[in-house]
Design brief:
The complex is a heterodimer. In chain A, about 5% of the residues lie in helices and about 35% in strands. By secondary structure, chain A is mainly β. In chain A, the strands form two sheets. A five-stranded antiparallel β-sheet of chain A has the order 6-5-4-7-8. In chain B, the strands form two sheets. Chain B has a nine-stranded mixed β-sheet with strand order 3-2-4-7-1-8-11-10-9, with helices on both faces. In chain B, strands 5-6 form a two-stranded antiparallel ribbon.
């Protein structure tokens, strides 16, 4: 595998559950042990009720495109071979929204409201990045 | 009636040369702006007893920036500080100055900004979040947040890129009447449409400039201002609001805090959208301006696209905006020049670009990853 030059996560005790889940093919986020809120971004405390209790909870990986942009400007040279590339803000069925890429289709083939499902891209031996593809159902 | 309505005045404004100023630093530009504002006000340096600064993107002192600026200007203030709220800092410092002079904690506050972003090497390759997490997916730079916002507005309401172009065209037209503007050559809607994509759906001509420059605004009480050199410019209303939760708030993209900020300013000033003669609306990207029209009550939710068509927002139209050219065409001073132009319109000193009979001006600021906002109502004294 060619050397991966794009930014990688700094894996810490706080976010390890997320990245370990991806490596094992599961999209999981923190569910508050007190109020049940599923939060993102990853945090040590619930932004709704301030409880420290939580469990990493597997999600369906299904959602829809909430907003969608295509980067033509090269801001970081590690993406030189990718431009133009897309970034979507994905609305997950369980509530949270996260940024990712829609893979497997032309940039122009994606529109806001399209249904998507998670796929996993193992970019290094340590890191697997969650991305999304269009789904029919 | 709100106790601070019309109790504060802008008594001096100044800006350094703008654009690419080789050899300049954030500090040298701030100093030049201060000298010009002080001269504009007729005050003596030793009367300035408040010092509020914005470190911008290139001042290395960050939160201690006021110390460096104060040392350089030889000012030991009674009231001071530095604040960083992105494009909302200018308005927030103006408000802080108003609170300080009305509380008697300072008599004359200089709010100062200098930035050498054009020649000082600002880097835009970092991610738009805390840490680097979003860069993993290639999401980075300020344009991305506004592009996300614009794309959703387009999908929900049918807003078009040409409608965004109306804003770029209006700002450039106004800059062409401003000898201090950086970009003065008029553009057409076709020029806008043909300019390259930056982060689609935003074209190059949807984006603000990147500029070197400095700006200073001097504030005192309305009472003291009556004895000073310039025509009276009153701060009639002030409002601020913030959305810190980019991901957790479903409506973050719509920048809902802007509506709260404008409503607070309207309420303090005792005015509404029908009373506004001219606007200086924060325009880091054209799409930001659209949302201001909706949040400030000039049109309904989702209707800002059609609202800006047909020259309504140009000089001579019903609601002229950004009469000096804005961040898009005058210079990217992160909204500081919006306050300066607002004050100049209220002094009726804008010549060819003066909005005739203008007595009430709405000035807005917005910054960070859409997170910060404020609004100020200026009134001719």
């Amino acid at each position: 595998m060619a050397e991966y030059k794009k930014p990688l996560p700094n894996i810490t005790d706080e976010n390890r559950g997320f990245w370990e889940g991806c490596k094992q093919g599961r999209l999981q986020l923190q569910k508050c042990g007190a109020c049940g809120h599923i939060r993102y971004p990853i945090s040590h405390v619930c932004p709704e009720c301030l409880s420290y209790e939580f469990a990493w909870t597997p999600l369906s990986g299904r959602g829809e495109v909430f907003s969608y942009v295509v980067f033509h400007q090269l801001y970081n040279k590690a993406f030189a071979e990718d431009v133009p590339y897309n970034v979507a803000l994905v609305q997950l069925e369980e509530g949270p929204r996260l940024y990712s890429n829609i893979v497997g289709v032309d940039n122009d083939a994606v529109k806001i409201g399209d249904k998507v499902e998670v796929v996993f891209d193992p970019v290094t031996s340590d890191v697997t990045i969650p991305k999304f593809q269009l789904r029919q159902t | 009636m709100h106790p601070l309505r019309d109790k504060t005045a802008i008594v001096g404004v100044g800006a350094s040369p703008q654009g690419k100023i080789p050899g300049s630093t954030a500090l040298s530009l701030a100093v030049e702006a201060f000298k010009r504002a002080l001269d504009d006000s007729g005050l003596k340096k030793n009367q300035i007893d408040g010092l509020l600064t914005f470190p911008g993107t290139t001042a290395p002192e960050e939160g201690y920036n006021f110390l460096r600026v104060g040392e350089t200007l030889g000012i030991d203030p009674r009231y001071a500080g530095s604040m960083k709220l992105g494009g909302a800092t200018a308005g927030a410092l103006l408000h802080q100055a108003a609170l300080a002079v009305n509380a008697g904690m300072a008599n004359y506050v200089a709010c100062i900004f200098g930035d050498s972003a054009a020649t000082g090497g600002v880097r835009f390759d970092r991610a738009s979040g805390w840490g680097d997490s979003l860069a993993i997916w290639g999401f980075m730079a300020a344009c991305a947040n506004s592009a996300i916002s614009a794309a959703r507005h387009m999908a929900l309401y049918g807003t078009t890129s040409r409608q965004l172009g109306e804003i770029a065209v209006a700002c450039r037209k106004h800059a062409s009447m401003n000898p201090n503007a950086v970009m003065r050559k008029p553009i057409t809607l076709e020029d806008h449409q043909e300019s390259r994509w930056i982060v689609k759906p935003l074209h190059l001509l949807d984006c603000c400039l990147i500029s070197d420059g400095g700006v200073c605004v001097i504030v005192t009480t309305a009472e003291r201002a009556r004895d000073l050199k310039q025509p009276l410019v009153l701060i009639s209303g002030m409002g601020q609001a913030y959305t810190t939760r980019n991901m957790e708030r479903e409506d973050w993209w719509y920048v809902p805090h802007q509506k709260l900020a404008v409503n607070d300013a309207y309420q303090m000033a005792g005015v509404g959208p029908k009373d506004i003669d001219v606007c200086q609306l924060y325009d880091n990207f054209t799409s930001s301006v659209l949302l201001w029209f909706e949040h400030a009550g000039f049109c309904k939710v989702g209707e800002s696209g059609p609202f800006v068509e047909g020259g309504r927002i140009q000089l001579g139209g019903e609601l002229p905006i950004n009469t000096a050219g804005g961040n898009l065409s005058e210079s990217y001073m992160e909204g500081w020049l919006h306050i300066v132009e607002g004050a100049r319109q209220m002094r009726s000193e804008c010549g060819e670009r003066q909005v005739k009979g203008a007595e009430v001006c709405l000035v807005t600021g917005r910054g960070a990853a859409l997170n910060t906002s404020n609004a100020t109502i200026l009134r001719k004294g």
